[in-house]
Amino acid sequence: MKVLVVGSGGREHALAWKIKQSPRVTQVFVAPGNAGTALEATNVDISATDVPAIVQFAKDNQIDLTVVGPEAPLVIGLVDALDEAGLKAFGPSAAAAELEGSKVFCKNLLHTADIPTASYQTFRSAADASRYINDRYTDPSDPVPVVVKADGLAAGKGVIVCETRADALDAIDRIAGQKEFGAAGNELIIEERLVGQEASVLAITDGETIITLPAAQDHKPAYDGDLGPNTGGMGAYCPTPIVDEAMYEKIESDVLVPIVHAMKRARKPFKGVLYAGLMLTAAGPKVLEFNVRFGDPECQPLLMRLKSDLVDILEAAADGKLSELPPLEWDERPSLCVVMASEGYPGDYEKGREITGLAEADAIADVKVFHAGTTLVDGKVVNNGGRVLGVTAIGSSVSAAKLQAYKAVQKIRWQGAWCRKDISDKALNA
């Protein structure tokens, strides 16, 4: 069969790499792809959000399954367009993708379905949101433990954690005043800041059956020790010891099952990947957000451990036949992904800097370098994004996987390259 992967990040490289391993697959295409996907598949020069062109390509090339990686094409209805053309696709409809496309919709649904989450208020203007902060926190010296979130898609950067009143007012101005994240800031949420450790629990569902994947832990803040601004994710590892069997079952029963039922009641039945971003508080797990696709970078360590045929799983979800699948098989060893980023990320950064040492890094045992923000220029791999590579390793323990991943990181060079040095340390401290 022929498979088309839509997207250009590390997640899409990992998907193409894993899909290619299926004995059922004869050809893999990636639109638009990157320098790494070109090693696994055939890149197609079509933007991930060019819905008509993707549908036409899938028709012309008799694609048997289209796997949509990023959130933007899901939110604008790529899966709906493929379905209407009689083409099989893995991912939620535009209506179901609103779970990620609108944080206001998500929070309201969580509240209605009685799924544990932070208390919150929604606002349509910077003035109203600022008035709320000033009225509630009258003393400028008092702590203001809130999180300000843009309603729409903002590439993982529209969430600002605040410590003071000045922080909160600045976040409101950036999101809803200056519109730093564009139309994503037309509405915003102010919610209580939860205390605990974060975990990512992903599940694949066909709207009836839910297959929960091993828990992972992402590292959103830019710098070591969880300092600095939020990013799209600076690294992840899987599984995480902070989600034990009892916690895993609680997340399934209190979060995943209720959200699938709530989406069905809202007449937005969900098919695809449900990604629950959770805070593990003293009162139990609470939902920070839902995403509607594989996480990036969580996808990389997850797929590194998956032994079952990924194509069988994705196709069964698209066909509504997940209940017919045997239990998934996993490599028992933990895996870890370290994101290497461009100088200046998550702010402005320079593109076009040549990357060396990729082959040497990939040659290290139990290591796979997944490309994210890369492209080919005159046959050379150069950086083309903020998060550039996801250096992923598997090992007999978390510390062994970490050692292999950072060994590979040391082989890779480009001007201004950097990464966090503490990916997975929370597991070692647990």
Automatic annotation (TrEMBL):
<dbReference type="GO" id="GO:0046872">
    <property type="term" value="F:metal ion binding"/>
</dbReference>
<dbReference type="InterPro" id="IPR011761">
    <property type="entry name" value="ATP-grasp"/>
</dbReference>
<dbReference type="InterPro" id="IPR020561">
    <property type="entry name" value="PRibGlycinamid_synth_ATP-grasp"/>
</dbReference>
<feature type="domain" description="ATP-grasp">
    <location>
        <begin position="107"/>
        <end position="319"/>
    </location>
</feature>
<dbReference type="GO" id="GO:0009113">
    <property type="term" value="P:purine nucleobase biosynthetic process"/>
</dbReference>
<dbReference type="InterPro" id="IPR011054">
    <property type="entry name" value="Rudment_hybrid_motif"/>
</dbReference>
<dbReference type="InterPro" id="IPR020560">
    <property type="entry name" value="PRibGlycinamide_synth_C-dom"/>
</dbReference>
<keyword id="KW-0464">Manganese</keyword>
<keyword id="KW-0436">Ligase</keyword>
<dbReference type="Pfam" id="PF02844">
    <property type="entry name" value="GARS_N"/>
</dbReference>
<keyword id="KW-0547">Nucleotide-binding</keyword>
<dbReference type="GO" id="GO:0006189">
    <property type="term" value="P:'de novo' IMP biosynthetic process"/>
</dbReference>
<dbReference type="GO" id="GO:0005524">
    <property type="term" value="F:ATP binding"/>
</dbReference>
<keyword id="KW-0067">ATP-binding</keyword>
<dbReference type="GO" id="GO:0004637">
    <property type="term" value="F:phosphoribosylamine-glycine ligase activity"/>
</dbReference>
<dbReference type="InterPro" id="IPR020562">
    <property type="entry name" value="PRibGlycinamide_synth_N"/>
</dbReference>
<dbReference type="InterPro" id="IPR020559">
    <property type="entry name" value="PRibGlycinamide_synth_CS"/>
</dbReference>
<dbReference type="InterPro" id="IPR000115">
    <property type="entry name" value="PRibGlycinamide_synth"/>
</dbReference>
<dbReference type="Pfam" id="PF02843">
    <property type="entry name" value="GARS_C"/>
</dbReference>
<dbReference type="Pfam" id="PF01071">
    <property type="entry name" value="GARS_A"/>
</dbReference>
<dbReference type="InterPro" id="IPR037123">
    <property type="entry name" value="PRibGlycinamide_synth_C_sf"/>
</dbReference>
<dbReference type="InterPro" id="IPR016185">
    <property type="entry name" value="PreATP-grasp_dom_sf"/>
</dbReference>
<protein>
    <recommendedName>
        <fullName>Phosphoribosylamine--glycine ligase</fullName>
        <ecNumber>6.3.4.13</ecNumber>
    </recommendedName>
</protein>
<comment type="pathway">
    <text>Purine metabolism; IMP biosynthesis via de novo pathway; N(1)-(5-phospho-D-ribosyl)glycinamide from 5-phospho-alpha-D-ribose 1-diphosphate: step 2/2.</text>
</comment>
<keyword id="KW-0479">Metal-binding</keyword>
<dbReference type="InterPro" id="IPR013815">
    <property type="entry name" value="ATP_grasp_subdomain_1"/>
</dbReference>
<comment type="similarity">
    <text>Belongs to the GARS family.</text>
</comment>
<keyword id="KW-0658">Purine biosynthesis</keyword>
